[in-house]
Specification:
294 residues, alpha/beta, six-stranded mixed β-sheet, two-stranded antiparallel ribbon, 14% strand
């Protein structure tokens, strides 16, 4: 559950600065050198049950891979650890309920949102802002039929397990929960207000993003999912996306020094714009290109 809660704050779909228009399916990037191939695929962590997760190009790329990377290990043990840590770190300290973070008008909006979602106000009161934010973000999506277990990254992981691939990951549950638990007060407050805004808007935006992801409409996706997030909540954008992108670019840069084929599947928001993973890898001298349908 917590993996999907995390993904709710990274809802965007793949965009590439050097590309335009649509591809024949979700966008897939590739970098090559003399002895290495690196495929990079942006995922959506919530999909509707039964929805496709790839394309012929993605199928061929992942089948050729020696190693498959995801943001975090996907397993029952990892899920349980993530949930345990979230419950430990996400509880509000005594004397600091969630309502104390907000103004009277902001609390009115929070209460109206919680009531609409069927959440008990007391349940939110006992949460730190980051955990309440994740809860408010994901519940409307699940009510609209988006399924955490149908996420693209879980399908990628299942393919790897079934086909005996070497599975690797960038972060541990402790690290991912730590991103939230160690946020400053200002950052947590921003995060909560953003979640209230998103909950009030409903899932029409996610429906549009999902449709754009399916056809690789990169320009529309960046406009819909990334630009507003970056401009209105720059500190959250920096903490959640940019800092992690830089760390992952370092890992993948070292990976390309070896040999073989790697398939990287991470949340699509991480691949977007000048500070996205694609441009960071290009800045390291890699030639990263959009894979066109055969």
């Amino acid at each position: 559950m917590m993996r999907s809660l995390w993904s709710a704050l990274a809802l965007a779909v793949l965009a590439g600065c050097a590309s335009s228009g649509e591809t024949a399916g979700p966008a897939l990037f590739v970098a090559r050198d003399a002895d290495s191939t690196l495929y990079i695929y942006g995922t959506i962590h919530l999909r509707k049950s039964g929805a496709s997760w790839g394309s012929p190009a993605v199928d061929a790329a992942i089948a050729s891979a020696d190693e498959i990377w995801t943001e975090m290990e996907i397993s029952p043990e990892s899920d349980a650890r993530t949930q345990q840590l979230a419950m430990q770190a996400g509880l509000a300290p005594a004397g600091r309920p969630l309502s104390s973070w907000l103004s009277t008008e902001e609390n009115r909006r929070l209460q109206a949102t919680a009531q609409r979602l069927g959440l008990q106000e007391q349940a939110l009161e006992s949460m730190q802002p980051w955990l309440a934010s994740l809860t408010l973000s994901v519940l409307p999506m699940m009510r609209a039929g988006y399924d955490p277990n149908a996420g693209v990254d879980r399908s990628v992981d299942a393919f790897g397990d079934t086909h005996g691939k070497t599975m690797r990951h960038f972060e541990t549950p402790d690290e991912q929960i730590g991103f939230f638990a160690n946020m400053s007060s200002d950052l947590q407050r921003q995060m909560l207000l953003e979640a209230i805004d998103e909950a009030e808007r409903g899932v029409a935006g996610l429906d549009e993003l999902s449709a754009g992801w399916e056809v690789g409409d990169l320009r529309a996706i960046e406009r819909l999912a990334v630009d507003e997030f970056k401009s209105e909540y720059p500190a959250v954008y920096e903490a959640m996306l940019v800092n992690r992108n830089r760390a992952w670019a370092e890992v993948l840069g070292r990976e390309m020094e070896g040999g073989g084929v790697d398939f990287v599947a991470v949340g699509v928001a991480h691949l977007v714009g000048d500070e996205g993973l694609i441009e960071l890898l290009r800045a390291r001298g890699m030639r990263v290109e959009l894979v066109r349908a055969p």
